[in-house]
Amino acid sequence: MSKPDLKKLHWRYRLYAMRFLRNDETTIRKHRAMYQLRLNRGELLIAVMLPMIFNLLLLLLIDPLIEFWRAMLEFWVERLDFGAQVTMRSFDLGYFDLWVPTVAMQGQLPSPEIWWGTAAACMLIFVASYLIRPDRYLPAVYLLRALVLLQTTALLYFAFIPASFPHVLEDYVASNLFVGIMLLMLIPWILGITFYLFDFPLIKKVTLTLLIFALFIVVLPMQYLLHVNLIAYGSLLFMPVLYLVFGLFIDVMAFVALYAYGMTM
Known about the structure:
This protein has a two-stranded antiparallel ribbon. The radius of gyration is 25 Å and the shape is flat. It has 10 helices and 2 strands; from the N terminus they run H-H-H-H-E-E-H-H-H-H-H-H. The mean pLDDT is 88. It folds into 3 domains: 1-30, no CATH class; 38-109 and 165-264, no CATH class; 111-160. By secondary structure, it is mostly helical. A hairpin with a 4-residue loop joins strand 1 and strand 2 (97-104). Helix content is 66%, strand content 6%.
């Protein structure tokens, strides 16, 4: 690779040229993935119009969506029979109130048996993480230790100030489903700048978006109903880990997985 003669350039041009040089002053070539990105007016128009269309459709179908979620939650709450009931919770959006279904149930503080059992499980998992071969399963080791750390903080909280725990299950489910709706509104715009700009057929762009929508529409209420069910048979001790690790984080990972599938299919 050629080395540009920086000494012959004005200092401003030298500073600009240094952005494209490595430490050994060889030129940094454009990555091969960027060579195939050729923006044109048609792709830019699609990248702007498709998110607007999907947002408009979601707004028009928000009432059937909420009713579908409510019916789904009622169906499974009745059959699981763990002492909960489905109610509605409103969110003030300024011009109108958005009613979101939720699961009303009194969360219980951890009993001594659950607290000590969870503490023992955390200790065993932490010790077991050192028995896993780090050269092959290092991400799994870090994941297990991170889970233990999160659960340990919850153990310490409920050991000293359990009565001050501020969250209730009804607000927990409603807030997360509300965030899910906001995520559905945001997804087309994320795809607009990461997927729609590429020269894929329009049907592929629409299909991937509908596939992601279908996943979240079905999974979101079941995901947080499962959280409530686990907390009902366990206690509020597990809410922090469920929220931080098995909540929105899992949803984002699912989106990334489907996006990767769309880029390669």
